[in-house]
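Dear support,

I submitted the protein below through the web form. The confirmation email said the job was done, but the results page showed an empty box. After a refresh the structure appeared. I'm attaching both so you can tell me whether what I see now is the final result or a partial one.
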Amino acid sequence: MPRPKTVSDEDVLSAAIELLGTDGFGFTLSDLARTVGLSRATLIQRFGDREAILQHMAEFEVEATRTWIKSFSIEQGRDGLWRFLEEIVKGMGEGEGFSARVQIAALEARDPVMKFHANERYKIVQDAIEARLLDGPNRRETAEHLHAVIAGATMQWVVSDGSRGLSDFVLHRLGLAFDLIDQRLTTLN
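What the results page shows now:
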């Protein structure tokens, strides 16, 4: 009879994300095992090698994103869309632990499995944005553009002077794009 898990898979994967943020690509299975209080052999038995853990982490993030996005009500229109965008951006926090996101993005760029999961995660967010847009021209493109502004602004924040927190910085950039899109959609209707 197998022994009960003392540390959940979610706890292991969350710890892997944190290690990416603090130790970068160089974290080892031994580092992760020490962090979660399991043996390296237990991690290998449960997940496989380090690459497999990273891929499980990407799957975990897709499900976490899906669950989180489902927690928001769908309110179509300008005000509902802005409230939703504001909530998801505020959910990023003020930048604490964001270095893990940068490391993950670098991994996603080079690993096809992680890239696949990143695209799934992006699609979940883009679908949620699109669901809040009123029927009209270019709904999908508008949703993708707003999401791209969020993603691009987060990278701009990484190299900024740090005088603003992450969510304030991104909301400022997003607000400018949102107003331009809103003006364009208003003139088309």
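Response: this is the final, complete result; the empty box was a page-load delay. Residues 166-188 form the longest helix (23 residues).
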